[in-house]
């Protein structure tokens, strides 16, 4: 009896495992091949650029800086300071700045969420902004 069941199971698996359709591999075609006789010479779709004559060239020359120091700007010199210390929210920040018209310097402080205070000391003497950042506990 066990042999009949095993034989029947093997026969059923073989029948069910066989393909239920006929699949034919597609024949290779030359759909993507370019025939040699249809290759064309490239067509130029633009005109040759016109080269400017040397006298027509415009140069972007930066004027030389003058030896005289620039005149102080309106509102110079100045100094100011302000700060906030809010007990309810815990916000603390401040800003102090001075300028004589040539050099601007100062510092600002911000209380960070981790309890440290970020201190930024800065100056600008006409050669760009410079800053030093430190942290206080």
Automatic annotation (TrEMBL):
Full protein name: Cuticle protein
Bilayer-spanning residue ranges: none
Keywords: Cuticle, Signal
One Pfam family here: Chitin_bind_4
InterPro entries: Insect_cuticle, Insect_Cuticle_Struc_Prot
Sequence segments annotated as region (Disordered): 61-84
Aminoacyl-tRNA synthetase in keyword set: no
Annotated GO CC locations: extracellular matrix; extracellular space
GO molecular function: structural constituent of cuticle
Keyword Signal included in the entry's annotation: yes
Highest taxon listed in the record's lineage: Eukaryota
Signal peptide: 1-17
